[in-house]
Design goal:
By secondary structure, the chain is mostly helical. The protein folds into two domains: about 50 residues; about 35 residues. It contains three helices and no strands. The longest helix has about 30 residues. The protein is rod-shaped and about 85 Å long. The termini are far apart. The model has no long low-confidence stretch (mean pLDDT about 85).
Length: about 80
């Protein structure tokens, strides 16, 4: 949470001072690259805070359980047919 706060504070502090629309092309490119990088950093911290990884992992675990049950049912049916 501290990382997200620091990233947003840096973004809000520095964004008005970036030379995005100056006459210097190199300064504008630097400002756009810095802004994009800052947004990626803030987004990654927000992604972690929201907990998307945990939800995705829970969903994957549920899918693994379903596939395991399907495999067990298939093997059980196959062994029953083999015994008959």
């Amino acid at each position: 949470m501290l990382g997200l706060t620091l990233a947003l504070a840096t973004l809000f502090y520095a964004a008005p001072r970036l030379p995005l629309y100056s006459g210097d092309a190199l300064g504008s490119v630097f400002g756009l690259v810095w802004l994009c990088f800052a947004l990626v950093v803030a987004g990654s911290h927000l992604y972690h805070v929201i907990g998307v990884d945990r939800e995705t992992e829970q969903h994957l675990q549920q899918l693994r359980r379903i596939r395991l049950k399907q495999k067990e049912a298939w093997l059980l049916a196959r062994t029953r047919r083999a015994r008959s």
